[in-house]
Amino acid sequence: MRTALKILGILIVLVVVAAGATYAWASASTERALSRTIDTHTIDFPIPFPLDPEEVEELGLSSEEADRVALERARERGRHLVEARYACGECHGADFSGGVMVDAFPIGSLLGPNLTSGAGGVTANYTAADWDRIVRHGVLPDGRPTMMPSEDFQLMSDQELSDIVVFISSQPPVDNDVPRPSLGPLGKFLVATGEIHLSADLIDSHGADHRAYPPAAEVSVEFGRHLAGVCTGCHGPELAGGPIAGGDPSWLAASNLTPHETGLAAWSYEDFVRVMRDEVRPDGSPIGEPMTLVTPYADRMTEVELMALWTYLESLPPLPEG
Ligand code: HEC
Ligand code: HEC
Fold first, then answer.
1. With CB atoms 3.0 to 4.6 Å apart as the test, which of 8, 60, 145, 286 could cross-link to 198 if both were Cys?
2. Residue with CA closest to ligand 2 atom 9
């Protein structure tokens, strides 16, 4: 009996020591991963994008009028991008004054900072290069990798990013100090073991040029591929679906969006639109989280955007799920 107790005692000590050592290892290795400096290119683009000189001449605009029209158009394009395609407000708040990406112990508290010009706003001194770094490379202005899932935004063109900056900057200033992201023990463990990847590590290139303009807004595979950039974060780089890496453990696996029998082979365009707008599958069953986070945005996509997405999905090689 005594020996059994002694062995149990030793086992408990071993478990506690192992847990402590694992935590120390996870903390140190996450700290290392987050304090690295990542080299990215330094680019520039106009904010807002100016009008085409030919159009300015055709409309007979003075240079001031041309600037005003350019700003108005950029803001409206930016509004559509943020409302229908790039869910910045999901984590930064509907008024961009700060929001929640994850706030769950023991994973951690990953809050989206205040992007307005109010007190606590972090973008007052941002250059175009800083916007490029955080949004398309997942890198903070000082070069450290961020917890923001910027891999979803890699395909964004300069003009789209510029439009989003114009739209966000046109929002009223709100004072709100948002605490910096902090990881709990489980969050550190997931980063240390590579279960949660930092976006800067998922992005292929930090040096290649971005396209200046998006593909023409028409029903084409090229435009569809561009739009589907934001679907790959959950549905996978080849859109074949499977469990969502680094997602909330309660989330459903993402569906196979390729024209395979386990995917959308038997679907029509109308079926696709019904999911995207009404959250209902062809068999009448409702879709679940987290696709339901996407549908409010998809609901504001134009007909051309939805048709282009569908055309692209249909053009994919049929792959089995996962
Ligand atoms: C899934 C959640 C999420 C989405 C979507 C998201 N962000 Fe973020 N963003 C974050 C988090 C979390 C941080 C804090 C990152 C850090 O400090 O490591 C952040 C940080 C930032 C920062 C500030 C970096 C700094 O200087 O501290 C900017 C600017 C930014 N995001 C812009 C955007 C824009 C623009 C979009 C839309 C194109 C966007 N974000 C979409 C979660 C998100
Ligand atoms: C935040 C993660 C996430 C993002 C981003 C996302 N999806 Fe989904 N999607 C899911 C999940 C999870 C399901 C499965 C839901 C279910 O089983 O109820 C799903 C289901 C679907 C379905 C239904 C397929 C079926 O067989 O039932 C379609 C269609 C779809 N998504 C299209 C898209 C498109 C197009 C985009 C990009 C514009 C996109 N999704 C972006 C997570 C996501």
1. 145
2. 291
